[in-house]
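Let us practice reading a record.
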Amino acid sequence: MNFKRVRAVANKEFIQIRRDPRSLALALAIPIFLLLIFGYGLSLDIDHVRTIVWNQDASSPLTRNFLLNFKNSRYFKIIAYTDNYRDIERMINTGEALMAIIIPKDFSHYIDSGKTAPLQLLMDGSDANTATIARGYARSVVSKYNVDLLNNSFANLGLKPPKSVDGRSRIWFNMGLTSTWFIIPGVIAMIIMIIAALLTSLTIAREWERGTMEQLISTPVKVPELIIGKFLPYFAIGFFDLMVGVLMARFLFDVPFRGSYLLLLALSALFLTGALSQGILISVVARTQLMASQLASLTTLIPTILLSGFIYPIFNMPKAIQLVTYFIPARYYIVILRGLFLKGVGIHSMWDESVFLLLFAMTMLTLAVRRFKKKVA
C-alpha cells in the first residue's frame, strides 16, 4: 500500500466534490432536513383524540362528572356535542372526529341503583393502530372512574374499600414515553446509511461515464489504493453528518445521551465503513450513475425504513421477514444508537451488534476491492 498514491486519489476526489457544490450541499443539507422532518413531523404519540359526545342524560351531574374524566385527560379532546347519530356519522366519516361517546338516558339511574351502566364508544377503525390505542385510553379512563366510584361508595358508608392488587409501573430510559427519543436515533442511522451509500455509489460510475477511468487505469495506482482513496473523502462527509445528527438530537430535540461518545465514534466508524464500501461496490457493479443511484436506493432506503426496526417493531413481522432483517446492517446500528442514547449501555451489552458491523464492513470492503478490475473491459 502506497499512501502517497492513496492521498493523491483522495485529493482528486476532494477536488471533484468541490467542483460539484450541489451534490456537496445535498450531502450536508439532507441530514438536517430529514432530522427536522422526522423529528417534528413524525410522532408515534396518540394525544388529543378528537371526540364527539352525545349525552342523553345531560341533566344529571353524574354524567357531567363522568365526562370530566375525558375532558381533563390529555389523550382526548372533546370537539363537539350532539343530540343525534347523524352528526356522529358525518363527523367520523369526514375525519373530523376519531371517537364518539354515547351516554344513554338512564346512565345515572343505573349507577344510583348499583347496576352496571351501559356506555357506547364508537371508533374510526380506518387507522387500526390509532383506534386500538385510543380504545385503550378510553378503557383506562373508564376503569379509573369505576375505582373512584367504588371508593366513594365505601367512604359514604363509613367503610374501607376492599383491598386489591396495587400495581405500580415504572418506565425505564424514557419515563415520559416521548416518541421523539425513539425516532431520532433511528433517523440518524437511516441518514448515515442512505447518504453514505448514495454518495459513493456514484464515484466509480462517474469515472466510467466521463471517460476518466481509462486514465486512472493507466496509472500505477493499485485497486486497494484507488478504493481507499475514493473512500476517505466521503468518510469525512459521513462523520460530519453524524456529528450534525448527534448535536441536533441532543440540543434541538433534547434526546439524552447516556453512553460513551468514544464508543459511539468507534461503532459509527464501523457502520460508516460498511455503508461506504457497499456504495462503492454498487458503483463498481453498475458502471452508470443512473443504475447506481437506483440500486443504492433499493438496497438502502427501503430496507432501512421497513426492515430495520426504525419504525415498525421486528418482533411483529412474519418469521420469514424477521430472518431477512438479520442481513440489514441498519438493524444493528439502530440498536447501538438507542442503547447509547437512552440506556447508556457499554460494549458488553452490544457485543453481537458490534461483531456484525465489523463483519459487514470487512465483507463490503473486500468485495468492492475484489470486484473492481483495472481493465477497460
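A brief commentary: The mean pLDDT is 85.
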